[in-house]
Amino acid sequence: MLCPHCRSEIPVASAACPFCHTAILAGGSPLSPAPVAPKPPALAFRLLAVFGGVLCFAFIALLSIGAARKAYPVMNPEALGYAFGTCIGAFLLSGVVLLIYLKVSKKKHTPAYLFGATCAFALLWAVLGIAPQIGKREQSQEEINARIARLAREGLGQAPVSRNEDELDGLLRSFFADVKKFNEDYRAEIAATDNSSLNVLYTPDSFNSEANIARMLDQLRATLAVDEKYASLQPLLQKLKSRLDASPLSESSKKDFWKGVNDSMQAATGPRDDLLAKEHAWLGDSIDLYEFMRDSRKSFHVKGKQILFDSDDLVDSYNRKIEKVESERKEFLETKERYAKSQQEKLGKLGLKQSDF
Fold first, then answer.
1. What is the sign, positive or negative, of the torsion defined by CA atoms of 128, 133, 138, 143?
2. Do residue 65 and residue 6 come from a single domain?
């Protein structure tokens, strides 16, 4: 029996031709063959892959610009560079995966398909890595203050250490611990410094012998030396910078954090530097006064509560020097009081006080 469709020899009473699969009626007449969907042309697939890749690239570019706008207040050249680097970075992992696949499979693939697949994987990576940065909610100032206060208490040993929100928590906690240690070392050195004679500073009794003058000079110099030793906060900042450099934070995060630290430290250390400058000027001129009295020891004597000089020139020199140091001491103490009040107000906003440090 011949198939009425392809004319091939087929068994009698076959229900369908085993060659062309045409159904056979009982009388040997063929049924209409089932429609076969035509294969889409390869060109259409290639165009679809290229179009999809272009769309993926466009979405990645939009995500990169969104991340740049989140990181920078204005789209300046630095922000554009950030956006470009973020966009290129999304393709790096996808490109590496593609190269590994091609090397392992050793098959030839149409460039259009490779382009589409690379862009699709890059978009997936961008959505996972960039989109969370854009959607991350900014903390309010109250939340930031509360976080800093919590980390300060933990760093000062006043509260148990909590789970880190990010790498910055550990850095800040360690910084507060360093500040406390810095202050403890300063107070320990001041306590170990003999300043028992400074309670009679500028009194006639402090000038009535070479031994008293020498003792005053030793104690003034020792006090000034300790203050100069702890005048700079650079050792604290250098420790923080070293920890920051060693942290796994991204380079952009490190740069932004350090810029914030520098900006805040400049505002905070200005009044402190002014206070230290006034203290150093006062102590330095006090040392100058006692050196003057030591060098003029044979030209004056103390009588009761008075200092009697042998010449009017010495009297004038003494009066100028004593008036200067008295004025500097008054100015220093007033500045110190204002500074302490300002510091307490700032710490009070965080729920902290100076004694915590």
1. positive
2. no
Q: Identify the bridge partners of residue 303 per DSSP, sorted by sequence position.
A: 306
Residue 9 counted as domain residue: yes
Residues 23, 71: one domain? no
Hey, which bits of the chain come out as E strands?
Answer: 300-303, 306-309
Distance CA 208, CA 202 (A): 11
In a domain, 339, yes or no: yes
**Orientation of helix 167-192 relative to helix 141-155, angle to 10°:** 50
In Å, how far are 65, 70, 262 from 252, measured between CA atoms? 15, 13, 15
For residue range 240-295, what is the model confidence (pLDDT) as tens digits? 999 999 988 888 888 988 888 888 887 778 888 899 999 999 999 999 999 999 99
Residue located via tokens 């198939």:
3
Domain that holds residue 20: 1-34
Residue 82 counted as domain residue: yes
Rounded Cα distance between 83 and 60, Å, is 10
Instruction: Kindly report the pTM of this predicted structure.
Output: 0.59
